[in-house]
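pipeline stage [seq->struct] | target=Putative phage protein (TIGR02220 family) | organism=Paraburkholderia silvatlantica | residues=235
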Amino acid sequence: MRHFRIKNWERFQHYKDRNPPWIKLHRDLLTSETWVSVDDASRVLAIACMLIAAATDNKIPDNPKYVQRVAYLTELPDFSALVEVGFLEVLIEQGVAEDRSDSLADASSVLAKCSVSAQETETETEKKRLMSGKPDHVRQQAEELIEHLNALTGRSYRMVESNIRVVTARLREGATVEQAKAVIAAKVKQWGRDPKMAEYLRPETLFNATKFEQYLGQIGTKAINGHDDGVRFEN
């Protein structure tokens, strides 16, 4: 099962290890753009997620029925708004993107769908990174963005080089994670309900060198070499 985590949880929750767990709502959260931009149902869900995170070391299951039951919610929760604004992040476990389906297929069955060549390329790249002893922060950001795209679209794009490469290229050119998330959210909103256009909600299209810059301009975000991207996801 896929899980979420709350961004900056360790910074804000000083009482998370108490039993029963406590949560603390900080002024920074309640006055943030994240909080004021979501609806009341999402705000209630955010507090419910905090309560669960306090008892599970910030590991919230992507299981609406479970969250509804343990948090005594009257409606089935929808995590998409909290993911879109950056309050919730998809938890990447062992660098493998999990399938969004409800099946109980394990990681081996998901990986079996990959081509042999793609697996070898990914393995060699990971081996070089481990041998260097230095974490590849840009790659980690690219994986975060692909997981974010999966969360908003219901897809299961894998962490293979063909996907990672096009995302890291934009990041190395100066694009920020916030800008990239803004582009993804805007295009999901624009194309998500159109079956034909939804096919273009993939890394190679969204992060194409020319198109990515155009998409930034369309949503009113400054070019990737600008100093102020105009987008903030803080809590």
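stage status: PASS
auto-comment: DSSP finds 14 helices and three strands in the chain. Strands lie at 3-6, 60-61, 88-90.
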